[in-house]
Amino acid sequence: MRTAIEGMACRLAANNISEQTLKQGVAILEVGRKAVASGSIPKMIAADIRFHEFLYSLSGNPLIGPAMAPHLTYTQRVMGEVLIEDQEPRDIWDQHAKILDAIGKGKADLAEKLAKEHLIHASHFMVSRLKAS
After folding, report:
1. Is 52 helix (H, G, I), strand (E, B) or coil?
2. pTM of the model
3. pLDDT the model gives residue 130
4. What is the CATH number of the domain that holds 77?
């Protein structure tokens, strides 16, 4: 569900982006990278959730955020378990930066594609790590 809705949100965001909102996105990326550097799992999770909520707000569709809220709550729980055990998911900020770059350039198809790839990769990764625990 997240893949479909977030892909759509990123497509819409590419049509709604302004220079000011792009700067906000870049600031969120920086917070995320700092959270990874700090090693703080709660900060990493909070920054990730903030980035995705930012994408929902950029879409201009007021239904996306509330529809995704329960999914983000579940994602937070799973991310916490995965991050305690593994380092690999910490590279998500490169993926986020590529998504934001596509949005900033108004490349709706690419933004949607990158968002979907990001979420599919993340879901496979989280499920495989949880099975291994």
Report:
1. helix
2. 0.89
3. 64
4. 1.20.120.530
